Amino acid sequence: MITDLKTIALERFWPYVDKDGPIMPGMPDECWIWSRQPSNEYGQISVGGRDINIHVFSWLLIGGPKTTLGFLLHHKCANKRCVRPSHLVMETIVGHAEQHKLKRKTKGGINLSETNCNCKNDKRP
Question: Which fold has domain 2-92?
Fold first, then answer.
């Protein structure tokens, strides 16, 4: 399978990776952005007749372990289009949910529950 991944990477992955992406808050280096129009919120690539999320493909390409039941890949940079392996980390589903809950409560270090935000995207209960 590794040979297949490397062939796919040369032909259908690297040509669409922009290594000059933004540096997200808290990250030491640039995001690598998947530049093709995503078919879902992350972008996908077909491997062996099966579509996989593009960040998962990037993770597998560097030899990262396959995700198992109860785990998934988390974008430390919070950029869903990022495929830079160093910006990805294996995390429990519970831990991932807690990260997203924290991100919803704060924005730029400001606790949204303590403000009168009238944002369209405000999804506070």
Answer: Homing Intron 3 (I-Ppo) Encoded Endonuclease; Chain A (3.90.75)
- The answer to whether 112 touches 66, Cβ cutoff 8 Å, is no
- How far is Cα 106 from Cα 25, in angstroms, rounded to an integer? 13
Q: Where are the alpha helices (DSSP H) in the chain?
A: 2-8, 54-61, 93-105
Give pTM, 2 decimals: 0.71
Q: Residues 18-48: pLDDT tens digits?
A: 999 999 999 999 999 999 988 788 899 888 8
Instruction: Report the pLDDT value the prediction gives residue 114, as an integer from 0 to 100.
Output: 42
Give the number of other CB atoms < 10 A from CB of residue 15: 10
Torsion 83-86-92-97 (CA) sign: negative
Give the pLDDT confidence score for residue 116 in this predicted structure: 42
Largest separation between any pair of C-alpha atoms in the chain: 54
